[in-house]
Fold these 2 entries.
Entry 1:
Amino acid sequence: MPFIPHTDDDEREMLAAIGAPSIEALFDEIPPNLRVQSLDELPTGLSELEAMQLMAARARQDRRALCFIGAGAYEHHIPAAVWSTITRGEFYSAYTPYQAEASQGTLQSIYEYQSMMASLTGMQVSNASLYDGATAVAEGCLMAVRANRRSKAARILLPRSLHPHYRAVTLATALNQGLIFDTLPYARDAGHLSLDSFPAHDGQDFTALVIQQPNFFGVIEEVDALTDWAHAREALVIAVVNPISLALLKPPGEWGAKGADIVVGEGQPLGCPLSSGGPYFGFMTTRMQHVRQMPGRIVGATVDADGRPGFSLTLQAREQHIRRAKATSNICTNQGLLMMAGTLYLSLMGAEGLERVAATSMARTEELVRALTAIAGVRRVFARPTFHEAVLTLDRPVAPVLAALAQRDIQGGLDLIDHYPELGPALLVCATETKSSADIEAYASALSEALRPARAA
Amino acid sequence: MSKIPADLKYTRSHEWLKVLPEGIVEIGISDHAQESLGDLVFVELPEVGRSLATGEACAVVESVKAASDIYAPVAATVVAINVQLAESPELINQDPYGRGWIMRLKPTAQGADSGLLSALDYQALAAAG
Amino acid sequence: MTLSLREKLIFEYSRPGRGARGQWPGLPASAAVDALPEGLRRRRRPMLPEVSELDAVRHYTRLSQLNFSIDTHFYPLGSCTMKYNPRACNAAALLPEFAGRHPLAPIEHGQGFLSCMYELQEMLKAITGMRGVALSPLAGAHGEFAGVAMIRAYHRARGDLARDEIIVPQAAHGTNPATATMCGCVAREVAVGADGDADLEALRAAVGPKTAGIMLTNPSTLGVFERRIEELARIVHEAGGLLYYDGANLNAILGKARPGDMGFDVIHMNLHKTFSTPHGGGGPGAGPVGVSARLLPFLPLPIVGREPDAERVAAKPIYRWLGERDLPQSIGRLTSFGGNAGVLLRAYVYMRMLGRDGMRRVGEYATLNANYLSARLQQIGFEAAYPQRRASHEFILTLKRAEQDYGVTAMDVAKRLLDLGFHAPTTYFPMLISECLLIEPTETESKQTLDAFISAMAQILREAQEDPEQLHGAPHNLPVRRLDDVRAARELNLIYQGPAG
């Protein structure tokens, strides 16, 4: 029996100590009609050898393709030292650090993570992670409603150019608490949020403006003007950012005259493999004045009974296990191991490494866009500068083209028809530092072929 | 044995109320309350000028192991808050009836404190647990 | 002499210009970077470490050595199910084809992965007795949110808008009332009886036309089986409410009883508890939800679907993601993509290794271990909260007599256990029992380990009587002594500010 160490002797001695005739007798408080009759729907067990052979076979079905999809999950090189370190048993199989004296490794790592994220985002304090980027946006909106005493409205402005899944999750999470969401359109030609489309909101009480930088299309927003506009109307600014982009772009703490108020985002680019969508980690940072409204765990430095420095969880009175119905959030387990991956990644890469990853990814995307738009029928959509993604239109529906590319083991990008039908046949493409010129050449060549038949007609 | 000054009124939720000159009342939490909470680390105070209904949650006292709401014992307007508590929340632990006062209110109705407990009644309540 | 950190901060290893250069891509000339508007460029570098790869590895390795973990210590945390995390599960989840797959990759490139997800859904249905399962919630609390949101959606769909009360036992985990609030409901507490079962009279009085549902776990947080669960379910259903099962204690009954059979309408499972995925120092978890027939339309998205045999077309993929078109009444999407896929894969491999017999044995041996520990600890002088009841997979000891007699608290016992090489049990939860320890050994611990724990507890009892200072001052032998929580909260120091700070 896997993982159960008991011998017959052990069992006998234990039952004797309990004074029970059998293990079955220990279940005698469960009404007989509730006892499971048969588990035949479940397969029989496998040895580790059989299980690994099964998984190897399943993995073989999923070919490794050349991936040019971004859309919130980005393929970056993860130094081998990240996962070899965090899968050490002392990190991998440790619990939440409630017994601080037995968890200084985890606690100090979190403190270091908080310090790095606060600095990266230009803010004063960070939590120890949330579930993912999407739920972090939702939590940011709920936090803004708690923190913005002046606003009675619980109304949040969400750009249409915010990641569609982040928007969906925010609505599914926050509508139950009576929040109202209004959508801001993006400028059709440039792809950014333009203040010209805002006047309809003048005079209306709103609690916060969400600004994603870069936005879902990869387009760079005019964050200073947007931040000042929101602050002038006594609303808070919730920044949603890509952590790699912060190596090159101004951090939210420096947006506008006063800086953003709450910063959230998806931490996946920092050391987390793509892994079909998870586990990742969400991050949240803010100003000191809002720290008590921030959900999630927070680690603080303190001293022990001998005066030796150490770390412990702090401000726990906000959390579910103490505040219960009045907690800032119901979050308990978060994404600790992935936050550690992020911490290792940032330590290994440093500011210079991060800059190079960001710059190389931008350069590769630029190269990709040049190569693809050289093909007839392929056009770049938005005029403004972008980070490491771009939107292209094709002269025909995108889905069959992507299918043809997939046949050749190239994942060409994300079809935008469901989320942004107004763009026509449009494709979101991304290239990171993991793509070589040969890879880009291969994509261009395959796309050229996929588009050829219609041109002959 | 926690202290329960005889000249104050009390609520079921462990607040005390002292009548000051000119119809102002001063509010804090009892010795029993501060003892159960443990060392206080933070106090969240209402804004001066805010109007409160009887029983409305208007402040929060936070220790390492608990965060408790403070409820307005009478309908009133907030006229003063103890700003010392921002730097030194421990004043409530050290001197809950004196330097640990939390806020001063101007009741909106006369005789509104009739529903409150006497020191004796509060002592019975606190002893019961 | 000023004491310093056992292992200094990573920032203190930094030297300007140092870095793990082998990890850095070359710096290309790029028109795109040059095109970034001046006013939007970062001026000052963030404060990130400038260290060699060796220093980074050495630092975090040394930090890891300051931790307790399942791999190093017995960890009898009640309601956490700290069982062994099989390494095969990690190896399988990190196979390059799984680890490297983009969530939005075409389903043709993911049939292997999707087949594992589909089969996981099916196995979780079978072991819990539910009709449908969604895998996307990212943790137990997230699953709770999904569950309560589905209950609300169900009542709204019936036009019954008055139901906004969620009943929660006094002893419930804090996430339960917190979740009720997050869903726009009001949490209403009911008392528990003296024998550990819910007070049915109090429950009858509490239910009515405003009741949306009740959140329970079985066995309860008191470590005992709710014996009249069927009657309880009837009371709530007759009042028009639904039953939510918090799966935190599923390990006690795995393979022996099923929440679906008890009458629960919606459940969440904690894969990082019952199904052995790693706790990781605070996550990642996974909190899939299971539902009865009436809540099927409301499941959160996405879910993995399979083409029925009759409709299979050669060369077309069998497995796909179901979306809004398939479930128009879904409560919606709760996560960026499909959930914590890596965690789901680990749980899948674990369940395949256990198989049907292995799962039944989990419930059996978890219960044997808990009852053994409970009996022996009582024999050496500890007081159980419910001595007349069978322990489930966990049980509660109360130290209130030790506190009266020797001035020794549950906290003192917990800290002294750390000195003796055991992680402490859960303390002060449930709040109903004073000075309590909630102890859950799990099925992966041997009798030898349990006996060693019993010896340590015997020693602690002796010390309580003869030398209580040992306990009050514990821990003595760890990298740090007892930490000052009050100072941590009063003098907030939450980020490193540089050498001066």
Entry 2:
Amino acid sequence: MHLLKLDSVSRDFDVSRPWLNRVLEREPRRLLRAVDRLSFEVTKGETLALVGESGCGKSTVARLIVGLHAPSEGRVEFHGRRMQMIFQDPYASLNPRWRVRKIIEEPMRVLETKKEVGELLRQVGLSADDAERYPHEFSGGQRQRISIARALAGEPDLLICDEPTSALDVSVQAQILNLMAALQERLGLTYVFISHNLAVVSLVADRVGVMYFGRIVELARSAELFARPRHPYTRMLLDAVPDLDMSGKSRTPVAGEVPNPLAPPPGCAFHPRCPHASERCRVEAPSFVNGVACHAVEESRI
Amino acid sequence: MILEVDHLKVQFPTRRGTLTAVDDVSFSIAPGEVLGVVGESGAGKSITGMAVIGLLDPPGRIAAGEVRLEGRRIDNLPHEELRRVRGRRIGVIFQDPLTSLNPLYSIGQQLEETILTHLPLSNAQARERALSLLREVGIPAPEARYGNYPHHFSGGMRQRVVIALALAAEPRLLIADEPTTALDVSIQAQIIALLKRLAGERGAAVMLITHDMGVIAETAHRVAVMYAGRLAEIGPVREVIHAPKHPYTVGLMGSIPRISAEQKRLVQIDGAMPRLNAIPPGCAFNPRCPKRFARCVVERPDLLNAGSSRAACWLHASA
């Protein structure tokens, strides 16, 4: 049984000019499709990562899952009891006027049996005394621990993590990622992990979905995806990762930029940047078959 | 040497006493060389950069030490003179390209103005030069983009314009503070390739400040690792990445996730970098150090020779 299922979910945003301009200048309404017919399932206990560059729609997916946005089309099914979200910016996501105790107690209002705040804080590596302090007294890493404690307070089965370590220094990131892995083991949590950092994703994910322009272009088991990337965009992303081992392989810069979402290219959205694009790619959008959406892969050209 | 920094000390007087943000930092950069400066937020890497170019925010000030550009001392120059040196011989690239661009002028105007201020050229020559700079940093169809304003450009393209601006006066020293942090990986690689090529071709010295070891590994020749306002280690990039000598660098390198590794847990340095008002005596890293011994707690280590690097760690004391 899947814990979470997205069935052909799309989300449009209205980015039209104000009404008066539209009437005077006879402009049509303009819709921006941030997420386009997205489908995937998440099994209990696994970590599914969504990875992509800024503007690819990955954060919109997070918001669709937790219900901060309603889907324009399609449906989101959740078969667990509760979900919680961990945000990127630990400075913006904690109320500065509340003591840590109040922040952590808030999600427990809906529960019958309440957990002890001190115990939750110890679980994330803070001390019980920290409950009486304010968020500004903590460093970025400690605040992210508070966010995690708050998320755990609601006894979720599913945690949606939107770039949880992107604002942190690497050594602090290591602490938080290790903590999240330990909590998953101990509490049997399921994560949807959203990130732009492929190295982080390779560490935490069981399965990875690569997003481009509002769609998943490739979805595979993590080991498989990083060893044998299939979609040209996945290959490009992997080639663009800085080479820390200095094996001498030079990084291939990805040519071009993500297209303007208000004027999406016809056919496959990646074709203007793709070295394998054919005439078919320019006119016909590829459908998602066997874990990848690419004509070149389907035709065994690459 | 193009840039020499000797025993630099930067202090911020506050109501609760004086904070030392950069403490006894020395390094130099040769022509054509890229020195990477890494460290976590608050380690003092950006402040070091700002001190070098004389742009410390008050009340911050250089309390001791010297900064020399091509042999000439610049840290004690009068304000106006320093401003001229900075404009003519130092180029600066910041993380957010929008802070370096004026939204009310077209990029062509901004480039021309910078060129005319610093170089003895006619208007037509300045325009020619501006166009060739834009071409050099990889802006497609520069003639067509010349009259565009900063908001017409994407983030990666804006950062290219900033690099063109920084190069406009043929600087000898280029200071790049997190130039790729705000960009996507795919764009990051383009910018890094550009910086690298420009340093090599023009023989400028580059001080590349970043927290991203991947960027350093690809761009820098040497690396300086900062911790709590001090240099923990400095050496050739290969040596620092593959055979780090300071326990802090060892921990830092281990905490970086890598795609190739089969690991499921990262090396973790417990605790956090001390605040500037609570730097412990002895080695600043000692409370978190797995290799600490008695001397580390009482006596601060200088940079000691360790292989082809130098590390501020008593493990490398010869006697």
